[in-house]
Design goal:
- The complex is a heterodimer.
- Chain A contains 6 helices and 7 strands; from the N terminus they run βαβββαααβαβαβ.
- By secondary structure, chain A is α/β, with parallel strands linked by helices.
- Chain A has a single domain, classed as 3-Layer(aba) Sandwich (Hypothetical Protein Ychn, Chain: A), CATH 3.40.1260.
- Chain A has a 5-stranded parallel sheet with strand order 6-5-2-1-7. In chain A, strands 3-4 form a two-stranded antiparallel ribbon.
- In chain A, helix 1 runs parallel beside helix 4.
- The mean pLDDT of chain B is 95.
- The chains are: A alpha/beta, B alpha+beta.
Chain lengths: 168, 75
Amino acid sequence: MAEAEPNGVNAKSMTIIVTKGSLDWAYPPFILGTTAAAMGVDVTMFFTFYGLSLLKKKLDLQVSALGNPAMKMPMMGMHMGMPNIVNMLPGVDAAASVMMKNMIKKKGVASIEELREAAIESDINVIACQMTMDLFEFKKEDMIDGVKLGGAATYMEQALKSHINLYI
Amino acid sequence: MADKTLDAKGLNCPLPILRAKKTLKDVPRGGTLEILATDPGSVADFAAFCKTTGNELMESTADGGVYRFLIKHTG
């Protein structure tokens, strides 16, 4: 936190609303959140809807190329997309997710588990949306430790005094 | 000779910065931290990190695909 950390020349704050829970979409909020915290910024991450699944104790994140023409994976010396009709077959998403995770490991990119741990360690204020918890029937004990519950007003209180507010 | 060295080779964004921040805590104020990295993005990122946190980037060099940064803990 900025005040506990003598490095906080930067008494600035940022909030991120995290709405998506697929492996690819999990990266931008965690990368920006942890990096900002490392740069002395006071960070709040508000997890809502599918973003909530990023707080579950056991992560099983997947990617899907279905309806995502920009997702081209390096294969056989080129970049290959996946026709939607192939992507609809059972097991194709799972295979693409395994490929993506292998690529992530090979390239020295952090895992989401690792970034999430860094987020908690660097005192990022992690808020789980109470309404979505109820809607999807998640229990607080399904979530990692260090998560606070809150609603739109809790988020707004922080957002109104923050320098940067992102919606991802 | 730096007070501490962090080997961040093979790590990609944002890990070199996160590890550097963590390691800086163990470097006394006024002391130096040497970081070795292979992520080409780390050149711009360490400059931005130091500028924002008030730490001094004393050296930023490259040698055979390895980038070396020397940071003085002044932030």
